[in-house]
Amino acid sequence: ETPKSGYIPENPLCLGLNIGYSTMPWYLDNFQPSSALPDYYNKLKTGIHINANAHYMVKGFLGLGVEYSFFRTSTSGSIPSVSYSSIFIVGSEKYHLYINYFGASVLFQQHLDAKRKFIISESLSAGVLFLRLEYQNTYPSVTQSGYSEISNNMLLTGNSFSGKLGLTAEYRLFRAVSV
């Protein structure tokens, strides 16, 4: 017998954990990278992503809960340049970017078959985004009195209200486990 769409599920708690490699295609699109490093800033768009959520299913298709996401990326590179005395020198840059998100979430689920094995889930979340960008630039300084290395460090942090959309396709292996 196929359950009705508004039934209350046997297991009303729905937990999710996703780990993978993600990309932010819109990030740094307005930034003009140096011609010496064409892919340097494109590397900051991709990184490790972890998402965890917990929802209480108030109906068979509707759940209310919370969501947490973490995204980390980093890149480094060397930039050749010429000093005032026609000496070629190489500087280096390192970036580390961390993005954390926490918010309230609504989960919608559609079961695509009578056995309830195939599921499409959509989530809508509103919350707070926390950003941390670490930057280090090291370059040599060549003067008539000698050579030294100069390092500049920068830390940028910020918080913002944010929203998040999610779309997931699942196959239920067992009663409480799906991939």
Question: Can you give a write-up of this model?
Answer:
By secondary structure, the chain is mainly β. 0% of the residues lie in helices and 70% in strands. It has no helices and seven strands. Strands 1-2-3-4-5-6-7 form a seven-stranded antiparallel beta sheet, with no helix packed on it. The radius of gyration is 24 Å and the shape is elongated. The protein starts with 12 loop residues before the first strand and ends with a strand.
Provide a concise account of the structure shown.
By secondary structure, the protein is an all-beta fold. It has no helices and 7 strands. The chain has strands at residues 13-23, 46-57, 62-82, 88-111, 118-143, 146-174, 177-178.
Layout of strands and helices, then pairs:
Blueprint: E1 13-23, E2 46-57, E3 62-82, E4 88-111, E5 118-143, E6 146-174, E7 177-178
